Amino acid sequence: MNRKLDEILETGALEPPPGFTLAVMERIAELPRPQPVRDGPAWWPWVAVMSGIVFGIDELTSFIFSVWIAVTAN
Amino acid sequence: MDIARVLARIAEGDREAFAEVVEAFQRPLFRFLGRMGLTQAVAAEIAQETFVRAWRNLGQYQCDRAEFSTWLFSIARNMALNELTRMSISRESLMDSAAANAICARAAPVDEIMQQQSTARLHLAFSKLPLADRTALALVYVQELQLADIAALEGTTVGAIKTRVHRAKAKLRELLGAEHE
Q1: Which of A53, B126, B155, B168: disulfide with B133, CB 3.0–4.6 Å?
Q2: Cβ(B172)–Cβ(B141) under 8 Å?
């Protein structure tokens, strides 16, 4: 029964009409050439790095000042 | 067909290379659209539009993300589903198809008449299947697509696709069997 159903599905299938490729290519001829889509600049890694650097400088400055205050207080 | 090489030729400006793509995929595309329950005329329109859209969006296709066949059939699938939804069960087109077949049948040889009747019967049976089951069954007969590709296209699991196909086949058997009685 399964084989019979497969046969029915095969015999009942549609086929492309003659000249189909030509018809498609005529429409393609009217269209511009497809352009590759370039990926935009990956900005988020730079944002992550820059915020890391700013945070690091801030932490370092705080540390230097705390050491300097501690030294000068004594 | 080495699709990567054909696409490279198109990127270099060889428009005619796209004809190879059309030649390679038109037959499975028509068969898929037919199994979706669409008539020859509607299938031809959708198939043509599928290739035109593929051409327009060829720059967006990334071969490392999906097979070209999966990408192409996803365009056709979406268009077919839109069309079927628009026609809502496509009764009108089925009647057109039956009428066209009847007209052709007057002059056609016996084999051809039987073929046309078989197609009309199949279209009618397909139109009675739920859309999700019909799509799964139509896609499973596309040799270019693996079950995993179909599952990705349908946004579900391979198991779910197998279930849909099994259910669709059982229903088709029932429908086609009932007509023979």
Answers
A1: B168
A2: no
